[in-house]
C-alpha cells in the first residue's frame, strides 16, 4: 500500500511538473530543438530544475535503503552499445517530429485533444513492436 | 512570455521531486518509457500495480491543475501521418535505448551516468536535425 501511495505521489509530481513547465506544449519542445529558428531555452531550465532534486536524491541513497523496502538500483554498466545509440536517435527523430516524449504524452491526454491520442496510440504500438524490431536488428547487425 | 523560464524551472523542480520520491521511496528510477513499456510488452508484470498507479498520477494531476490555469494550447500538429510516424519512432526508440527524457535525461544525468549523458546528447542532436530538416527544408512541421 505504501509503495502504491508513493508511486502515485511521484507520478502526480511528475505530471504536474510536466504540465506547469510547459513540456506538454509541443511548440515549446520544438522551439528548444529549433536552433535555427525562434529558439526557446525553456527546456534547459526544466532539465536543470529537475536534475537538482534528483542529484540530491542520488547522494542521499548512499548507505541507505528505500523507504518501502528493497534496494536502490545499481549503476548500469557504462556500456554504449548499438541499441542505446540507435534507439536514442530514433527517439530524437520522433520527439522532434511531434514535440512529445513519453511522460508529456501521458500527462497531456486529458487536455491535448485528439492529436495527442493519435501520438499516444502510435507510441504504444511502437513499444509493443520494439522487441521484434530489436530481434530483427540483432540478426542484421550483432549488438555490442 | 518573459516568465516562461520561471515556470520551466518550477515545473522542472516538481519533475525532479517526483523522481526523488520514486527513488527514495520505492527504490526505482523514474523513466516514463520504462514504466509504460513494461506494461505494454509484459516485462513489468510483477510490478504492474505500481506502474499503473504512477501513470494515474501523471494523467490525473494535470486535470486537477487545469481549471486554475488559462486555456491550454498544446500546438500539436494535426498531420496524422506525422503523429503516427513520430509515435512509432518514440515507442521503438525509447524501448531500444532503454530510456527517454525522464530516465536517461533527468535520472541518468543526475547520477552522472555515461549511458544517460550519451543518450541525451544523441536524442537532442537527432531532434534538432529533425526539426531543422522537416521545418526549414520540407516545411512539414
TrEMBL record, chain A:
Q: Which Pfam family, an example, fits this chain? A: DUF6691
Q: Which UniProt keywords apply?
A: Membrane, Transmembrane, Transmembrane helix
Bilayer-spanning residue ranges = 42-60, 80-97, 117-137
Q: Write the protein's name.
A: Sulphur transport domain-containing protein
Amino acid at each position: 500500500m505504501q509503495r502504491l501511495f508513493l508511486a502515485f505521489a511521484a507520478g502526480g509530481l511528475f505530471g504536474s511538473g510536466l504540465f506547469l513547465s510547459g513540456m506538454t506544449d509541443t511548440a515549446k519542445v520544438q522551439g528548444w530543438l529549433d536552433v535555427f529558428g525562434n529558439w526557446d531555452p525553456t527546456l534547459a531550465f526544466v532539465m536543470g530544475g529537475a536534475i537538482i532534486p534528483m542529484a540530491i536524491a542520488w547522494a542521499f541513497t548512499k548507505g541507505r535503503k528505500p523507504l518501502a523496502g528493497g534496494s536502490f538500483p545499481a549503476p548500469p554498466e557504462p556500456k554504449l552499445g548499438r541499441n542505446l545509440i540507435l534507439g536514442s536517435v530514433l527517439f530524437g527523430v520522433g520527439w522532434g517530429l511531434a514535440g512529445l516524449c513519453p511522460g508529456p504524452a501521458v500527462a497531456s491526454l486529458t487536455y491535448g485533444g485528439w492529436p495527442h491520442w493519435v501520438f499516444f496510440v502510435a507510441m504504444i504500438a511502437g513499444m509493443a513492436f520494439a522487441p521484434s524490431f530489436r530481434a530483427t536488428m540483432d540478426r542484421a547487425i550483432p549488438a555490442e | 512570455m518573459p516568465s516562461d523560464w520561471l515556470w520551466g524551472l518550477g515545473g522542472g523542480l516538481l519533475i525532479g521531486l517526483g523522481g526523488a520520491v520514486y527513488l527514495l521511496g520505492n527504490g526505482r528510477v523514474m523513466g516514463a518509457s520504462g514504466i509504460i513499456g513494461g506494461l505494454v510488452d509484459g516485462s513489468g508484470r510483477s510490478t504492474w500495480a505500481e506502474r499503473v498507479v504512477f501513470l494515474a498520477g501523471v494523467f490525473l494531476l494535470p486535470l486537477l491543475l487545469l481549471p486554475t490555469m488559462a486555456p491550454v494550447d498544446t500546438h500539436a500538429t494535426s498531420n496524422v501521418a506525422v503523429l503516427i510516424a513520430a509515435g512509432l519512432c518514440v515507442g521503438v526508440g525509447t524501448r531500444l535505448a532503454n530510456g527517454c527524457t525522464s530516465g536517461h535525461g533527468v535520472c541518468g544525468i543526475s547520477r552522472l551516468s555515461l549511458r544517460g549523458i550519451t543518450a541525451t546528447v544523441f536524442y537532442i542532436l537527432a531532434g534538432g536535425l529533425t526539426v531543422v530538416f522537416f521545418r526549414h527544408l520540407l516545411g512539414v512541421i
